[in-house]
Amino acid sequence: MRPTEAKDLPVPEKAPDPRTERPPSGRPRPADGRRSPGGRAQGPPDPHDRPGANRPDAVDAVDAVDAVDAVDGDVPAAVGRVLGALLAERVEQAAALDPVFGRDLAERVARCTVEGGKRMRSQFVWWALRACGGGAAQAEAALRVGAALELIQTCALVHDDVMDGSRLRRGRLALHADVTAQYAGSVSADRARRFGEAAAILAGDLALAWADDTVAAVEAPPGTARALRDLWSTMRTEMVAGQYLDLHGQATSSLSLARAVRAACLKSALYSVERPLALGAALAGADGARSAALCSAGRCVGIAFQLRDDLADVFGDPRRTGKPAGGDIRAGKPTYLVAVARGRAETTNDRRASAVLRHSLGRADLSESGLAEVRDVLEATGARDLVEAKIDRLVAQGMRHLDSAVLEPQARGRLRRLLQASAGTTPTSILSPSPSPTPGACGGEDGGLPLTLLLSAGADGVLR
């Protein structure tokens, strides 16, 4: 799977090195084991405390509120600090088991997790929490869930690079290629390659195990903890299902619009946007109406997020994406963009366009000139413009879902900007609001179809 990253989100400050960063020590820790989001030991915070409150824990409560305000100011950096402390401990434990294991796998997993990326999923958790009224009492849990999402993203990326045969990730050697390069001089080239791929599979498994451990250790009231576990379990299965559909489409050369969107929904919309929003809402104890509105907004924008990534793979600048252009085309991935182009080419009897797509998709050795021909077809058939318009409609519908819920105004604004940025849109490019949407509807001008239908398209591949 190639889980995607929004291009316009704020990049966090340089994360601490997990090999040198250590959890805070030498400070008294209260009996309940809590720490503030900034790492200071504290008692259970009361969000109603304010300066001047005449009670013994007033100072601690004010400190907690101040710490939450600091997280509001830079969520990626706050999650990065939690990751730095958590991974330092994990790397140390791995090295104690075996130094080679610690160096070759644990350190690489930690490095992949703390370096690069925009912490998009963890930002969705935090701002959903804040939008639903959560604050100091849930801050630590939200940051830890955010850290767990960064780890499961590492699992997905590492495994994805092996399945796609991608040597680069974020402009650097992918983990499997890095391990291969490390041992290239010691064993045969084929053995080094196979060893690198096997090591990457284990590294992804390790990241997933650490993510699960992090979620399991989150302290929350029983009802909240149960909801958190259920959402997390569901999200993991959806992510794997989406990836399998992606691989199945490649293997069978399936270019069905319905299957393309189904895969995009499972592997990206749910995992990248909707479920992180749901996790934040659950931590805040949000009611059903607010949770449903956030999830509907997340699914609409999440599908737009994947469609934007499909466009970026073909038309994006490798200097920004961190990998060569055309990876999906060369891998033969059944993207919505390509399915629309093929459908329109067949409908208009454009034999040249159909031939270019048929001969180019799935060709690992496709040249740059060949990729340029594919780009021409995607534009000439109108597929690129149609997908761009679809993205705008989906995001507009997502904003209507967001506006239909009773949310904290400042956090709603932050969520709005984050959702728009994740789909590569700006407020001026979004269509004008229309009446409140039907709960669970996604698609706006496509008739407000139920989420189970996801997106509509005629048999000719034209977006309706």
UniProtKB/TrEMBL annotation:
<dbReference type="GO" id="GO:0004311">
    <property type="term" value="F:geranylgeranyl diphosphate synthase activity"/>
</dbReference>
<feature type="region of interest" description="Disordered">
    <location>
        <begin position="1"/>
        <end position="57"/>
    </location>
</feature>
<dbReference type="GO" id="GO:0004337">
    <property type="term" value="F:(2E,6E)-farnesyl diphosphate synthase activity"/>
</dbReference>
<feature type="compositionally biased region" description="Basic and acidic residues">
    <location>
        <begin position="1"/>
        <end position="35"/>
    </location>
</feature>
<feature type="region of interest" description="Disordered">
    <location>
        <begin position="423"/>
        <end position="445"/>
    </location>
</feature>
<keyword id="KW-0479">Metal-binding</keyword>
<keyword id="KW-0808">Transferase</keyword>
<protein>
    <submittedName>
        <fullName>Geranylgeranyl diphosphate synthase type I</fullName>
        <ecNumber>2.5.1.1</ecNumber>
        <ecNumber>2.5.1.10</ecNumber>
        <ecNumber>2.5.1.29</ecNumber>
    </submittedName>
</protein>
<dbReference type="InterPro" id="IPR033749">
    <property type="entry name" value="Polyprenyl_synt_CS"/>
</dbReference>
<keyword id="KW-0460">Magnesium</keyword>
<dbReference type="InterPro" id="IPR008949">
    <property type="entry name" value="Isoprenoid_synthase_dom_sf"/>
</dbReference>
<dbReference type="Pfam" id="PF00348">
    <property type="entry name" value="polyprenyl_synt"/>
</dbReference>
<dbReference type="GO" id="GO:0004161">
    <property type="term" value="F:dimethylallyltranstransferase activity"/>
</dbReference>
<dbReference type="InterPro" id="IPR000092">
    <property type="entry name" value="Polyprenyl_synt"/>
</dbReference>
<comment type="similarity">
    <text>Belongs to the FPP/GGPP synthase family.</text>
</comment>
